Each structure stands twice: as C-alpha cells, then as structure tokens.
Amino acid sequence: MENRRINIFLFLTGVGGIIGIAAIIYRLIEGMKVTWLTSNFPWGMWISYYIYFIGLSAGSFLFSTLIYVFGRKELEKAGRLALFSALFALVAGLLFIWMDLGHPWRFFYVFSHWNYTSVLAWEILFYVCYIVVLIVELWYLMRADLAHLRDTSRYGRRAFYGTLALGWKSPATQEAREDERKRTMRVAAILGAIGIPLAIGVHGGTGAVFAVVKARPHWYSAIFPIIFLTSALVSGAGLMTFLYAFLGDRKAADYPLIVRSLADWLILFLGIDIILVIAEFLITWYGDIPESTTIWGQMIFGPYWYVFWVGQIGLAMGVPILIYLFGRTSTTWLGIGGLSVVLGIVAVRLNLVIPAFTVPPVPYLDEAFHDFRFAFRYFPSTTEWITSLGLISVIAFFFLLFYGLLPMVRNSEEYAR
Amino acid sequence: MEKITRRELLKKGSVVGVGLTTSFSLGKKGFAQEVGKKTPLPKIVERSRESNLERMEKDLQRALQKPLQERHWVYVIDVKKCVGCAACIAACQTENRTPPGVVYRPVIHEELGKYPNVTRRHIPRLCNQCDNPPCTPVCPVDATYKRADGIVVMDYDRCIGCRYCVSACPYNSRLFDFGEFYAKGKGFFPMMPYENVPTYEYKVNWNRQRGKSPVGNVRKCHFCLHRIERGLLPQCLVTCLGGVNYFGDSNDIRSLVSELISKSNVMRLKEELGTDPQVYYLL
C-alpha cells in the first residue's frame, strides 16, 4: 500500500523531472533571456525558491537538533527524515541559485575569487560546511542500519549499501551495540551542536544577504534575518509534520503522538513568526516613510495581492491554525496543515524578494525609458515556471527514491523483525 | 581631499599582503596594455575665448598627465539646461553598443504641478561612481571594484551574473545584459550587421554572442573610460546639444568641474545613504 503510493509519486516526479531537466538545458543554452526578469527587477522566482529551500533546509536541520541536541526523545523517529530533507532542500536551493546565474559555468569563481566583503560569498562557505556536517551526521546515524541492510541484501543493493556504509561493521554483541548506539547519539549531539550556529548562519545569513542592502528599505532592517529564521523553522516543522504524517509508519503505536507533537512545534514557531511580521508591519506603517510603506502597499493591495492574501495569510497561517484548532485529532488533517504551510511559505519567500523591486528607488525612473527589460514589473515566464517545478520534481524524485532505499524512519531492529 | 576609509585601508593592505598573484589578477585585460605607453592626445585649436568644451578638454589633458591615482573624475549635470531630448541616451547606446533595455543613462522626466500650472524637469541619471560604493563590496567574486581614479568598473571576464550588485545599487544604475538583440530573435530577422560590431568598453573589443561576456554580465556606466583615457570627453557629454554636462578632474582646483561643484547650488542623489556619489547636479 505504502509502496504503491510512493511509486505513483516516483512516476509523477520522474516525468516532471524529465520535463524540468529539458527546460533547464534550454535555459542554459539560451541564457537569461528566457526569464522575464528585468534590469530593475533583477531577482524573481528562482531566487525566491533559493531562499525557500535554504530555509526549508535550515528549518529541518534545526528541528532535528530538538531531538539530537535538546533530547526530545519522543520525536526521534522523525530525526533522520529531518536531516535527510535538510540535505535535499539545501541541494535544491543551491541548484536554484546556480540556475539564476548569468554565467552558470563560472560558479566556481566564488571559491577561486572569493571576496571577503560579500555576504553572499560567506554564505557559499557556510553552505559547504553545513553540507559536510549534514552528511557526516546522517552517516553516523545510519551506519549501523546501512551495515545491517548490506548484510541482509544481495547483488546491487548489497553493493549500494556497502558503498554507503563505508565498510562499517556493527559489533556482534547486544551490549556492544547498545554502547555503539550511545556513542552515535553523542556524536549526533556534538555535530548537531556544531550545526546549530551553522544553520543559523546559513539561513540568517541568507537573510543578511538581503538585509545588508541599504538600497532597498524593505530589506534593510535587523529584523529581516530573524524573520528568515523563524519562517525557516515554520517551514521545517511544516515539512516534518507533512512528511511524517504521510510517510511515517502508520502502524506504529507512537505515530499519532509524533504527528501531534510535530504539529505543536509547528504552531509554536508559526506564532512567533506572526508576531514578528505584525511587529514589522506596524512599525513600518506608523513610521510612514514613503519608500517603505509604498512597498507594503504594493505587497498587500498591489499587483501581487494574491501572493500575500492567499499564500502568506491563507496557506501559511490561516489553514494550519484552523486545522490545529478544529481538526487536531486527525493525523491526516495535521499532515495537510503541514503541506499547507510548506506551500504557503513559498508565498512568504516571494513576498520577501519581489515587492522590494516594485517601487523605483529614484522617483519616476520607471517612466524614464521604455523597454521590457527596464520595467519595474515582473511575472515569471513559462520557462521559469517549468524549470522551477521541474527542479522541484527532480529533487522530490531523488528524495522519494532514497527514502525507499535508505533506513529513513525504521531502524535495523525493526528491519530485522 | 582623498579620504581613506577603513575598508580601503584593509583592501590596500591585503593587496600588499597577497603580493604578485593579486597584482596579476587585478591587471585587467584592457588596462594592462596601457602601462608605460603614452597615447597621443588630440590637438586643441587655441581661440581667444574658449568654450566650456574646450576648457574641459584642456582639463582632461592636464589630468591625464598625472598618475592615475591622482585623478578623480566627477560629472556635473546642470539640470536647468536639460530639455530631455534623450540624445545622450542614443549616443551612449551607440558608443557602448548596449542591447535593448540596457541604458546607462536614462533621463528621468518629472512633471510638477497641477494642470494648467504645470512644468517639467529632466534629470539624467548615470552611474554616480560613488566614493563609497554599496555595489562593489557585495560582489561574491570581486568582479567589480573602484579604480584609483574613482570609476567603478566591471570585470566582464570574472562576473558570474548573480545580480547582487544590481540589487545593492540605490540608484538602479546597474543593468543586466540578458543577451537580447535588436533584430535577431524578433520574428525571422537575422543578426543585423550593426549588432556584430564589437563594443570597446574597458579598451577591449567585446563581441556580443550568446553565452559570451558581456552577455550574462552586469553592465554599467563607466564615464566612457575608454574615451577619457584617450583624451576624449564622455560620449554623452559631447553629444549634448544644451551643454548640460560637465566632466573633469575634481583633484585639479583649476578645472571647470571643481569650480562648479564648489558653488552652493549643488546637490547629489541620495546623499543621506552615505554613498558619496560623484555625479553632481546644479540646480
């Protein structure tokens, strides 16, 4: 039953992924002109997805530290899933920003010509360190199960698990295995503790990429990276609720408890996020500096009103809160609430990037020269939609593929049974 | 007076520290050829009463006799004189062969008052070549930097096209080359001969082709650096029919621009951001 559902999604994401890869190849050949970005609207959908996935990654990782560092044992089954989705989300985010480069094949210049004054350059370093921590932590947590799978399977799978286990052998006796498990948890705690500042740097820093830009009053505030972080936690908790509600082991006794506990965390983070957004809105509104208030006006009543009302208010805040209030008993509904947050945060990310460019920073600059590439308007082109959805499909495909192959939720003792 | 900020000091220090490697990587394609070579400067006909243009040409030649770090180029725009004819835009596009939508100096037309009591003013906006540019430190690959003579330049061969600097510019003076052509790609039009003519920005011939710099790069106004280093005034300035523009070396107290910017009717765009822009507007 569960396998068949995954297979359907594997097929769908596989087809979507193939179309997406074709679109990405088209974009790489044709260059940035396939987008509907302009010189005055330099960042659009791809950058929004970039910060979205970096946020999802940091959120999922910080969520996993609740388990491994802060000892929330009841959530332990969701731990590896959190780390695994953190890894995949980070890869997705990096692919999105790579696709957004005017010269994608020069991406390695950020290492060879690293500029220490650039927040973006520092971010790239953070991403690299973070990915290393993620992989090492995941390997430590999975190695016993990988070894077990290697020893119990044959042919291709044996080779696959053998490669991933890196020759690790679980100790023979039960006691030694228990010791080993404790040691693994300690390593996970240490790596998680190293990872916390890294993850904060990864996503707070991504917020700082925008927040340091004094040219854009919408971004230039100290609260901006903090909002990035809290909405990252919201999206991470939302993703975990969604994934665990639909991919978790429904037969396990603690399944409803875990889903409900995940939803509790989701609502807590959501509450903090709402407070921050309201604080920013009220202070901007009261101050009434035209450059800032016009942008809020554009966001709420402007051409992209639906992103704010449907996405940010509806999907990311309203739906999960209503579900939490009235449908808490059903794990399926809670899972849907998680999905709603995961989708709604896309709108939150769009609203962090897009409105900043809608108002000309020099008055009347929008009427100074008339050309499509000089406009202060933006809507993603067909290629941008297809590449975005395609890239997400590719990532979802590999996520599901590895989810089926790797010991993600169950551990070796349960495999043995 | 030249003010050395801490950032500059750090930058200079790091240049010395890293030594030869950095100096090689900073020795950009175009400027490298110019070292130790004097370009012949155009002859100026002496007249009893010199025009502003002639005076600026003399200022320019005087500045070029000095070493690079002692020059400091500034641009002055007399807003009263501008009629908004957009000839400077056309001249700039021709000189730098910019693709559609890439316009280094748009002219902002502002309508003031309420009908029937209305008037218009025209404000050309070019790169302010800020003395404290917010666009250069954000570049992740150090592809844009401020030269010793005050001009913020792009290294097309290094720019990865992330457009962070475009976001960081408070004047929207940076533009992205999306790789479009005026004729090619529009219906069945082939590439027009005029689109094959290379641009000579930064003293290098750049052939615009798909996937090759400057396509996919950020582009910006550089005060026609390739012209001024040869003793010619910026193209927008010499094209202007109203004599709106002035250009010269502000380190030279005898120059026309120094005279103009020392007056009281001078303002700059968004000075409050601390960017220290070097385009002055006369009111």
Index terms:
heterodimer; A: 417 residues; mainly alpha; Formate dehydrogenase/DMSO reductase fold; 14 helices; B: 283 residues; alpha+beta; Alpha-Beta Plaits; four-stranded mixed β-sheet; 10 strands; 25% helix
The CATH architecture of chain B can be named as 2-Layer Sandwich
Q: From the 3D structure, determine the CATH topology of chain B.
A: Alpha-Beta Plaits
The proportion of residues in beta strands of chain A is under 5%
CATH architecture of chain A: Up-down Bundle
Secondary-structure element string of chain A: HHHHHHHHHHHHHH
Q: What is the CA-CA span between the terminal residues of chain B?
A: 24 Å
The CATH first-level class of chain B comes to Alpha Beta
Gross geometry of chain B: globular
Helix percent of chain A reads: over 70%
Spatial shape of chain A: globular
CATH topology annotation of chain A: Formate dehydrogenase/DMSO reductase fold
Residue stretches of chain B low in confidence (pLDDT < 50, at least 5 long) are 20-27
Summarize the structure in short:
Chain A is mostly helical.
Describe the structure.
The complex is a heterodimer of chains A (417) and B (283). Chain A has a single domain (2-416), classed as Formate dehydrogenase/DMSO reductase fold (Up-down Bundle). Helix content of chain A is 73%, strand content 0%. Chain A has 14 helices and no strands. In chain A, helix 3 runs antiparallel to helix 13 (382-405) and helix 7 (174-211) crosses helix 8 (223-247). Chain B has helices spanning 6-18, 20-26, 29-32, 52-65, 87-96, 164-168, 193-196, 225-228, 235-239, 256-261; strands at residues 73-78, 107-114, 117-124, 144-146, 152-154, 174-176, 218-220, 245-249, 266-267, 279-282. The longest helix of chain B has 14 residues, at 52-65. Chain B is globular, with a radius of gyration of 19 Å. Chain B starts with 5 loop residues before the first helix and ends with a strand. At the A-B interface, helix 5 of A face strand 2, helix 6 and strand 6 of B.
